[in-house]
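Service request form, structural biology core

Requester: graduate student, group of Dr. S.
Request type: structure prediction, single chain
Budget code: on file
Notes: please return the result as structure tokens.

Sequence provided:
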Amino acid sequence: MKPTWRGVLPAVVTLLHDDQSINFPATLAHVERLINAGVHGVIMLGTVGENCSMEASEKRELLRATVDRVAGRVPVLAGVAEYTTALAGRFAADAAKIGVDGLMVLPAMVYKGDARETVAHFRGVARASRLPIMCYNNPPSYGVDVTPGMFAELASEPTLVAIKESSENVRRITDLVNLLGDRYTLLCGVDDLVLESLLLGAVGWVSGLVNAFPDENRQLWDLATSGRWEQARDLYRWYMPLLHLDTHPKLVQYIKLAMAEQGLGSEMVRAPRLPLVGEEREHILGVIRRANATRPLRSND
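Core staff response, request fulfilled:
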């Protein structure tokens, strides 16, 4: 299934057993729950999916299991977050053989490349398979900024088709459109900037909090994309304290704790991440519980 790169695309969590091994049945059941909530595709092994904490064999096994479970109902995308360009290219090629529909490619991990090196990395991964690619630009988390000028350099690569813009600088959407027109499909990658991004021209949303609040997440999308901005704004204001959890270095722990509180999964993470404790845990639980106490009606009317 060819991705449209539009709509709500969850960065799906990888659910774990208490011993930190992958809980495949729970993860696949969660994917099913998200599809039933009306998402437009699923992204496995993104940041929220703890990609860099997984063994190479685990990643491939999880992709195979997801492709089999989804069975073509929505596009299945795979995050590509590797330490070298060669490893990223190999994973991209393997993902294509497994049957995923597209890739979300990050800059090389650990080493923070300069502009020339970063462009070369994306070119290398793009040429490793024929899968369409969403380039993931997240300088706050990964220390590499793929600027509009760099995307102009990369425009000659036909499989680089979309940009997940997570710089937290919403001006970038307008800068990209002004420089490159409709060359790339633009998606918001920061949960607490989604309404602003949609207004400026993003047509997709790669979301983390959708894992814990799939109904409200999809409702916000539907309101905004149907032009019902006042209702969307009201829902956005309720949702915002939760959406802020997506922009913290511990977003994986925060989102998994929210899922656990909603009865949608386990808060177990893989070391070096650890489940939250003490005041921090109580603070995040307070955010979640206050949102639940004022939760809006689940209706688009």
